Each structure stands twice: as C-alpha cells, then as structure tokens.
C-alpha cells in the first residue's frame, strides 16, 4: 500500500523513526488480540445461535416436520399431540415439530428447497401439491391406509399418484340472520333448494330496501392471495366456466374467457355496480357481519363457531348460490406430504399413516372446528355427526366441492385469476381482461413445457 | 404589525399541529385499538371513538399476545441481532470509509464507485442466491473445549447479522462526512506519532458523532424491520425476530386487537431509539445533504 504523500515527507523525523522502530512484537500482539477478539465474537454468535430444529439434525434418528400452525395454538397442540403419541409408540425415530406462520409458510419452504434444506415431512396447502410434486419437492405417498374412505378433497393427487393427504377440509357458505331474511320476506336457502341467480338478486334487492345496510352482501372483496380463486372461482364454475381446461390442463382458452366466464364477470361486477356489495369490503367480513354491517356474509366453516356464539339460533348457514350448474365451493385445505430428499422416507411414511388414525383426525378437527377427513373421525365429534350443528359443512364439502385445478400451473393460474377478478371489479372490460389472463396462462404453460412430468 | 405577525405565527403553528395530528393518527389508532376487544374496534371504526380510549378498555390483548407468540423471545432476538449489526456495521463501514477517504491507494475511486454501484441492486434479487451461499459456508461451534465444524449457516443468529454488516450506504455516509473533516488534523496527529488506527479512533471518529448516529439509525431500522431474510433462513422459533411474529396473528379468524397490541409492543423500541438520536440524526441529514 502506498503511503500518503504528506507522510512520505517527514516533518518530524524523530517521530517517524519512532514509528519505524516500533517493536515488532507490539504489532504482533495487536494482530493477535484482534484475531482473538474476532474469533471470540464469531464463536459466541455461533455457539449460542444454532437453531435446535434445523433439518441438519436429521440422520440422527430425528426427522423434522414443518407445519403452518405457528400462532394457532389449538391446531399446533393437536399436531404436537399426534407427534408425541407417535414418538412414544416406537423408538426407531423421533419426529420434531417446527411451526411457521401460515401467511409466510410457502416462502419458507421454497427458500429451504432452494437451499436443499427441506425437512422430511411438510404440510402443504392442497392446491399447491401438484406444483410442489412437479418441482420435485415431494415423494408419492405409499401408506398402509385406505385413502378411498377420506373426503375426496382431502387427498391431493398428481399424475395419477397421491402426494398429500389432509386431516380436514373447510367449506364456504353464506351466513345470515334468520330475522333479517324474514323481515325482508326472503326464504332461507337450503341444500335441497339453494337460491337461484334470480332469487339471489331478488333477495339482495329486498334486503337493500330495508335500509339497514349500505351494502347487504359481503363477499370478502378486500381479500387477497389465495382467497380470490378459492372464493370466486366456484361462482365461475357454477356459471359453467372454469380456470383452465381440465382435459390435459394445457390451455385456459374457452374456459376462462368463454361465454359463461364473461357472464360470471358481468354478474360479479354487477353486484358492486348495483350497490349490493362494496368493491372493497372491510378487512374482516365476519366481524363486520356480526357488527351488523352486512346482511349476508360469504365466509367459511372456520367462522361458524364464532358466528354461532354471537347470534345463537338466529344464525342461518346456507349453500352458495346456484348460478346454473349447481352450487360450488372450493375443495382442499392443508395436507401432509413427504419430501423427496428425506433421509428416512420409510419413517416419514410410517408417521403419516399413524397420524391418519380416526382418533388423530378427530383430535385435529376438534381443535380447528374443521370438517374431519373421514366418516370414522366425524363419528367421534358430536357436531359433525348426523344432525350436528356443523354437519352441514361436511355435506357442502361432499356435495359441492370442486378441486382447484390439479396442475403444477395452478399457482400461476390463481395469480392471474386473482388479478383479473380485481380488475373486473374495478371496472375493466370483462372480455378483454379474461382474454389477457388466458393469454398469460397459456404462455406460462407453454414456457414450462406443458408442466409434463 | 404585531397583530399581523401573531396571526402569521398562529397560522403556521396551526398548520404544523394539523400535520402532526394527521401523522400521529395511525399510531394513536394502533395504541387505542390495542386496548379494545375486536368487536368494538370495528364498531368504533366509523366514528371518532376509533381514536379514543373509550368503551371496554383493558390490557387483555397484551396478555393474549404473550399467549400466542413468544413475544419476549422475539424482542430479545431482534434487540440482539439489531444491536450487533449496528455496532459491527459502524465499525466496519467507518473503517472502510476512512480508508477510502484518507489513504492514498491506487484505484480507490474505482473501489468506491463499485461499492456505490451495489446500491442499485435490490436485495430481493440477491436473496435466493444468498440463501444458497450461506448454506455452503463453514460453520463451527464450541462443544466443551473442542471446535466442531459443519456446513451451512441456516437457522443461526450469524446468518441474520453478518450479511448486513457491510453496507454501501453507510460507507457513503461516513465517507462524505470524513471528507468534511480537515485533513490537517490527521497530519497534526501524525506529527504527534499517531498511526492510522489511532487517527481513526482518536481524531476522526470522535468528530463524526452525527454520521455515526445516522448510520446507527439507518442500520438499526432495516435490521429491526427485517422480514424477508429471516423468513428464508431461520426455521427455529427461538431464533426468530419480531417482524416474523406479526404473521402469527393472521389466522383464518384474525384477532385485530392482538395485532394492534403486538404492533404497539414492537414499535416502542424504534420510537425510543429515534427520540434518543433525533438531534444527531437531523444534524447529519442536514450536513450530508441526504434527503430521506
């Protein structure tokens, strides 16, 4: 290193000579001290900083299980209960639970996959299973369990093989106060006789005429992300359209931009244009409904217990509207899979099979208030037995559930559909918007080689 | 004339108060809502009561926060990670800036330009490759008296700290500030026998209080608000920082009172830090010509 010119011209030679003559051992002492300090700092950080649940612990008789339940103590406790029970039932392997917050769970898993650091067992939002399987994250399941007895929407398949299985599903429904419907002269919709499109229009007109609400309907239009395809694609399907052509999943043309899809788009925007619902609802539709800011709320089985507690017998749970092809709801919730890099696939499969015992499924369903995946499990939960308060959601799931398209392209399709829905709601031309979404989806499928295995 | 001046002052003051009130509204709403049950938060939303601690007021949401989230642990982690990042950041970046400002090294302008050029690249584009890289780095820990080596920094404290110590903007701020300190002071110290490190430690740094305070705040804030990076590299709950904790509340049924209580808890340290360094911060911004 070149010394500064000012210092190359010594002003005080005696000082410089002192510097030059500085004993070598003093320099060495400083370097040594600095090195020791740096090493100590790093060692301190390292020593106290390694996480206990790192997947690096795998291979020592312990395998990691990642779940999306951080912040949901009831469901996490139920999952931990199954794991504890499994761990004490054998001594070959120990399962270690690691919980992540739901909203950021996918990002954590994808990052771990990129770093080659996935755990053995993961839970996955059902519609993402084909994408994760296609990306090579998941192994096909080989379980000693008869999955045919499970609700179809709780088993995720791709390429003819099961890749994930869930303990429960959830179901969408319309909730209202019986007293409000009676006051407006509107009948309660039932599974035997759901509202038709015309009846729904009439009901909204009558409810609005009561003057109690600025917007009588709340479809959760402030929702984002997966809510948009989960909540609104069933309406599209009830009109006769779909997110993609399910015959080979190679194009959305004719399904997402066909005549029925445009009818859906016009109907959906019409609800806002006619003042029946807000273009952007409140952040918490259930709470707004309970605060009497809307007459009908479109929400899921997860809100039922809270609504029942607040409204008692005045609460009515109704199927979604039949817009032509019958009422439809989205199928599939969180499910479990085994990752392809797992160091002990046999143990992971063994745990999953164990966890699917009816009593385990019932424990999780009880903790979450969700629909148990099998009849045997439902028989252990009074509210889901025949005549039980929540049985209706199980019936909705069995009768109306449509799986979101089981293709690796689904995350992209979902994003495009979500954007299109929001654009249409905000005034964009339905046909042009849907054409544009189809173009993007088809291009994505093509650029990924058709997402073939 | 006096009346006119008074009216002018009063008008200016009124506008300032108005701006202050508007700026304070979200914070007041957060604090007030953290004391209310969910139903009341939404019930009060369409009236001024949303900003007033009226109705059914309690600390229940704060108690619930600690039931749902290991908030104390998250706070401790964030304080630790942020503090170490700030301290090491000030040391490393000021040393780098000192070298670039004071030492006559061939090519230092190119080095400085290269450092500044890194500001153009957004972190999001580097995040995924960086995750891969940190997982390839050697890792060692003390086990009794022996050192054990393994590979991968994922799920550690240092992965939350070390990648963020060197910071181009901090180097730039220090460099600009050091340039304003007369070089004659260095030469005087040199005459008195000081070496480079002594000049740095006893001459330049003591005169760079405002720049240090600014760098401290500008390093602390992203470290405290860090979300994407810990989300990608930390799996163990005991190592997570506060911002990940906010996601714990977004379940199918969101408890907004708890969200507000948690947000209030994690905002306090930032406000305290800002108030403590406010004067230095403003001075440094003014002297370095940096606009926020």
TrEMBL record, chain B:
The chain crosses the membrane at residues 13-32, 79-100, 112-134, 154-174, 203-224, 259-277. This is Multiple sugar transport system permease protein. It is found in: Cell membrane. Residues 75-277 form the ABC transmembrane type-1 domain. Its main location: membrane. Gene3D superfamilies: MetI-like. PROSITE patterns: ABC_TM1 (PS50928). Belongs to the binding-protein-dependent transport system permease family. It comes from the Bacteria. One of its GO terms (cellular component) is plasma membrane. It is a multi-pass membrane protein. GO terms for biological process: transmembrane transport. Keywords: Cell membrane, Membrane, Sugar transport, Transmembrane, Transmembrane helix, Transport. The lineage of its organism: Bacteria, Bacillati, Actinomycetota, Actinomycetes, Micrococcales. It comes from Pseudarthrobacter oxydans.
